[in-house]
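Open question from group meeting: does this chain pack into something compact, or does most of it stay loose? Before anyone orders reagents, we agreed to write out a predicted structure and look at it together. Recording both the input and the output here so the notebook holds the full record.
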Amino acid sequence: MAKTAERYVCQSCGAVASKWSGRCAACGEWNSLSEEPLSAGPPRGLDAGKGREIPLQSLRARAGEAEPRSASGIAEFDRVCGGGLVPGSAVLIGGDPGIGKSTLLLQAVAALAKLGRRCAYISGEEAPQQVRMRANRLGLADADVELAAATSVRDIIATLDRSDAPHVVVIDSVQTMYLDNLESAPGTVSQVRGSAQELIRLAKRRDMCLLLVGHVTKEGQIAGPRVLEHMVDTVLYFEGERGHQFRILRAVKNRFGATDEIGVFEMTDAGLMEVSNPSALFLANRSGDVSGSAVFAGLEGTRPVLVEIQALVAPSPPGTPRRTVVGWDSGRLAMVLAVLDARCGLALAGHDVYLNVAGGLRIGEPAADLAVAAALVSSLTDVPLPAETVLFGEVSLSGEVRPVNQADQRLKEAAKLGFTRAFTPPSPKRRKPPLAVDEVRQLREMVAHFTSRAAQERRAG
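C-alpha cells returned:
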C-alpha cells in the first residue's frame, strides 16, 4: 500500500509547499495554505504502457468549410464572444456577487433555445424551482431550457456524455463542483482545477459549448488557480457598481475573437437590456457648464465610447493629501499630477484630488491622460470646458502629448453625438476631421488655455 505524504497547497495561487507557513511564498497571501493528501508512490514511466496513435490533420481549411458559431441574438453578448459561441469551446465568466452573471447566462441560453439550440442549465447553488422563478421574472418561462441541480462532476458527465448532448451547457458555478476521487473540499484549488478539466474534456469530446460561472476574490480576480484561465478558450468579466444600472461585459481573453471588446447592458426589472449606443447613455445626464468635467473619446475593443471624466481639486488640510480614484488607474493619476506640477507649474501637492469615471466604466488606455489633465485643471481654475468638446491623447513625462490609435474613429463618434470641437495630439496623416480640431503638442498649451480664460473672467468680474 502506497504511503501518503503531506503537502500544502495555496488556495489563492495553487503553489505547493512541503510544510505549512502563515504566508504563501509565491503570491504573498496570508493563511492560504491548506493541507491536501498526496500519494507518495513512485510514478509510472511512459514505458509502462504503449500509447495509442493520434490522427494528424492539415492546417489548411477544407473547401466550403465555414467557422461554426451559434449567435444568441443578444448583440452585446455575441460581440464580446467574437460573433457567437463556438462549438467545443469553454467560456469562463466572472464577476462580483449579485452583478448579474446568472441572469445574463439564463437570458443567453433562453435566446439560443428559441433559435433551436438544445441548452442545459446546471446549477450548484440553486434548485430548479428557484431558476424557474427567476425565468418567470425575466419573461423567459416558455424557453425550452433543460434544468438540473447538481454538484458532482461524475453525475454531470454521466448525464451529458451521450450522442444527443446539448449544444450549450451552463455550469453555475465551477467553485461548487467536486470530484469524488479528490479528498479536498469543493472550491479548493485542486477541486476547481480538476472539475474544470473534466468538464472541458467533455465539451471538446461532445462538441458542446461550455459556459462556466466563476466566483471572484475581493481583489476582483477569478477565485481558484490561475491555470483555470489558461484552460478555457474565453475569459469574460462582468463589471459594474451595485447601485448603478450599467453593466459592462469585458473580454480579457478570446481565442476566437478580439480581446478588450466590451458589451454594455442596463439592469432593469425585466433583466439585462442591451445598450446599442453606450456613449449617448453615459453622457445622458451630463451638464456642460460645470468645472472639473471633461469628455473622453475612448476606444473599447473595436467600439469608440465617449465617457465623462469628473475631477475635484480641493485645498487639503495639513497632512498627506488624499488621492481617490474610481474607474481609472491610481498610478496613472499620480503621474499626470506630477507632470502638471513639474512641467506646467501648477501647485497640486497641497490639494486633495478626487477623480471619477461616470457610468461605472473602467478605463485602461493611456489615451485618457489628456482628458484627465483637462478635468483636473478645469477644477483647479474653476473654468469649465466648452460643452461640446472632447479630448484624447497620451501624456509623456516630458509633458508632450503623443498620438493614439484610431483617432479618426474617435472623432467620427464624437461628431455623431453632436460634439463640435476636439483637443487632440498632432497627426500629420489625419483625414479631414468632421469637427474643429485643436492640436495640442505640449500639456502646458492646454493649461495656458484655462489660465487665460480664468484671467479674463476675473477682469470681467
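Observations to bring back to the group:
The mean pLDDT is 87.
The chain has three domains: 4-40, 75-276, 280-460.
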